[in-house]
Amino acid sequence: MLLQLNHIYKWVKQGGKRVFLLNDISLQVKEGEFISIMGPSGSGKSTLLNVIGMLDEFQEGEYDFLDESVHTLKEKHRSKLYKEYIGFVFQAYHLIDELTVYENIETPLLYKNIKSAERKALVADMLDRFNIVGKKDLFPAQLSGGQQQLVGIARALIAKPKLILADEPTGNLNSKQGEEIMRLFKELNQEGVTIIQATHSESNAEYGNRIINLLDGSKVKA
Amino acid sequence: MFRNYIKIAWRNLLKNKLSGFITISGLAIGLAACMLILFYVAHERSYDKFHTDAERIYAVEAQVNMAGDTIYMNSMNSTVAALTENASPAVSSSLRLKEEYKPIILKSSQQPNTQFSEKNFSYADTNFFDFFSFKIVKGTTGAVLSKPYSLVLTEDMAKKYFGTQNPIGETISVKKDSTYLFTVTGVMENMPSNSSIHPDFVASISSMPTMIEHQIDFDSDVFRLGSFPTYLKLNSAEAVKSVEKTMQDLSVQGNPSATDVYRLSALIDRHLNVRGSSTPKYLSIFPLIAVLILILALVNYLSLSTARATLRSKEIGVRKVNGATRKSVAFQFYVESMLYVVLAFLVSVVLSIVLKPWFFGILDIQIDASFFLNSSFLSILVGLLLFTILATGFYPALVMSAFNPIENLRSSLASKMRGARLRKVCTTVQFVIAIVLLVSGVIIHQQLNYVRGVDTGLKRSDLLMLPLQKTMGTNSTPFRNEIEKLSVVTNTAVTQYPIYKGYNMFFASSEEIPEGTGLPILAVDKDFFETLGVIWDSQPEDEHFFTNKEQVIINEAAISKFKLGANPIGESLTFGNSSREIVGVVKDFHFETLDAPINALALFVKSKTTGTTDILGKSGGCLYVRFQPDTDVQILVTNIESIYSKYDTASPFEYQFLDDAFDAMFRSEERLSQVFTLFIILAMIIAGMGLFALATFSAQQRIKEIGIRKVLGASVVQLTALLSLDFMKLVLLAFLIASPIAWYFMHEWLQDFSYKTVIHWWVFLGAGLGALLLAVLTVSTQAIKTAIANPVKSLRTD
Q: How far apart are CA B505 and CA B322, in angstroms?
């Protein structure tokens, strides 16, 4: 078992009333799965991904990640955990504008204190694999959306995570670019990386081997 | 990692050139001002500390009670040094050092036809170069002053008199009343600018007993005052009390009725303890200004960097998601601050080197360029650098590293507004400082003008003063006659000393004050009253009041000091054995500094002829020349100089306008005023730049809001007002805080003056309006630019 959510509740107070963002979510994810989370805007897809990615807190429930109880961990341990095992891919790519393609991909390695020579080798592999060696010295603004997302994925993969969390990874891309990205995810999944993606699109969701439907923070039984 | 941080900081700097420029130059200006002041202060505090045994060297000082006033003297009899050294085991060595107090004329054997007038000529004991740490460049350190008529000169002087040739063994003739021939035995390094002892020439003291002019200096063996500044080197600083006791005993042994109190004053303290010097005042005010300017610059940096930080929130979010801990983000921003500060520091070093001559020109001081590399100054600089890095890096690092990644990536409004309150505080602090400086500067300037305009009881304009030397001698009469013949000259007069520069102190008594008290005396000729425009209270009826030796003219202050009658004519004052009848009273006029109320004064008046021969000729007095208004003073001075050179070839020609002599008394206030002007300009530049950058950021942040408002029908004027109003409120607040602070400081400052200007309310209002105007100008340009932008464009950015 990679991770397990048990009765997760997350809410915000609005005018004294609780508005539930996540309402009693339980979920088990095994290693090697490819899960698509679907649902309309505001259904809690991103919140769920953030909770799984340990970027966001929740009020009630239990969360175990690789046999560690995330809900009892201190901030420091939690960030160590996600640094080690989780990679993030965003709809808006979120590359650092002032860094080149090469440097963007390198960033997670810097925070893991990996030696310069090893970093070079790892980044070179990644550039090679994604066929963007020629673009390594360009800045994000000089790339197309699809290329930027490729860099984003390369960056998420560089630290060899067990889990990739992708929030609408194709949301800002045209259909052809989107398809390429999804095919890439499929490949990665076949290589053993667990992927959880949030998406609007039925066709993208089909790439996954399990679909979870959310509505107003609750799981909808299919 | 480190390189990565530097890289991204550098790219950010290039990306936001304007704000980067403003951030760095603002900090650089502040640091430069700070550096210059520190440079000055460090130099002042380093005086005489370069001597190896500096902390063990003391000057002998005597506290003398003279006519009720305590006077400090530091010239001792020639035997005091040796007597003390013999009597006290705590004294390891002693030194006598006598300075020529008037310029003397020197000629070298190399250029027998060129003579120079030199001021810094001293005589010293043989051990001068062992006692102090001045270095001998040519010659043998221990032996250069061992023989009579030996002379050591500085490298500069060696160049002046002998060019590139070796001066050792050459001779220099010294013209006093007689002419003496000195042999150059050594060359010493130029005196450092932080030495309070700075002779250009040091002659052996053993020459003096055979010089007619100085024989009088050796006529007594008693321990008492004399004409030699005397220095002692003690075995340890703890021995001060015992040596003082020894000196006191020696003094009483020499003369049982002596009342003088002998003390030691540490050499390293002497520079700052000079009585009546304005330096200590500067030393307390300037660091305060330096701190203010530095705070201004730091605050500016802080508010700009937090503003800039909001633009970086996305990057921080991305980094955190990619594994950056709070610590590493904090470190990154620290590194960035460091880069900015180091750049600013380099710029400020260049800036302060460029501004240095100007700044020290205002202060009228000379500082060796080599002092820039002085270890204590360098360590202060390094301290300043480290402090700035710490101070500037701390807050941004703290704020930025606390950013929540999810909020940042959503680029919510909340994270954009972060630090807004801090920036408001920063802006307010900046303007408080700027307004305080502005108000202070204006009031200092007003005070200066006020004091200059005070009626001092004399007609100061169109009056030239010519201090003459003894070398004029009997030529004084034809010299004065010839000057009076010049068509533009209306009047001349003679006094013993140039006014504001000195007077004699006599002990005088009256019937009511039989025990007597000190009374300043000025010997003048009868034309003094008309030429200087002195106003009579009661003019002597006898036209020839000046011919009689037993008569005296006094001022009003003397009437009350000696408790004379309302009309004291006919009463008398006793000076020692002789009694003088009061024949006239003049209205009070200032004859010394304006800081004190006008003292009592007695005028000993002589006829024009005797005044010219006795006061002017024999002792070297001062000739006043009143000329017609609108005279071309340049031509007048040239004419007088050519007349002068006919009658006195030995002493150089000197002159001063009475106006200038009067102004010279306010030089320290004048300098303060100029320094303030400089710093006000700097403060305004920094505050203005900071505000400009902040306005730019605020406009950028609200670009969407502005767009929406515009679509909804807001006019450019309304939008400009919306954007500017926030800043105006801050300036107003700053004005309210600054006014009482400025009032308090200036009120305190003015207490030092006996003539003070009134602090007007409109100065504050003016400074406030000035600051407001600055704010309006800087903010509204940005605001208007944003307000007239096409809303469609700005709405697309989000």
A: 86
